[in-house]
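Hey, sorry to bother you again with one of my protein questions. A protein chain has come my way and I'm curious about its shape. It would help a lot if you went through both lines with me. I owe you a coffee for this, so here goes:
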Amino acid sequence: MTLVLVLGDIHIPQRAADIPAKFRKLLVPGKIDKILCTGNLTDRATLEYLRSITPELYIVRGEFDDKAQNYPVSHRLMEEGLCVGLINGHYMVPAHGDVDTLAATARQMDVDVLVTGSTHRFEAYEEQGRFFINPGSVTGAFSPVEAEPIPSFVLMEMKMGQDVVAYVYQLV
């Protein structure tokens, strides 16, 4: 079994002060195997914090990430027999989590699970035999497309030959 932390749209310090303390209490070293970050990881301290949770950290570039960080636009990895794609999605047309656009991207990337960000809104659904997860914004950072973002992240439990189980954490 692999436990994968999925988060993104962090925007510290531009739009949020920090990851909520209640989340930090849950996100400790030694429990999480991998981290998938959908981008907008805009400060070094948060990057180091995520590396302290697990060194296996995959990050894609969001629209506010420093290009000098050299994060890829997309990433594809195999985990427990499933192919997982990771994107931010800010460059997609139409943007903001359009189901058909995401389904086309998942087909193009040839992935079973597509993790995407940019909307600052949690979503998880199955479409065309693929699983789609948007963890939302872990900080609840302001977004012009989401009036009142709720801080959220996802833990994906992946087991060989079984379905993905997604646990959603939100501050409500």
Remarks:
- The longest helix spans residues 99-109.
- The two ends are 29 Å apart (CA to CA).
- Helices lie at 21-26, 44-53, 99-109.
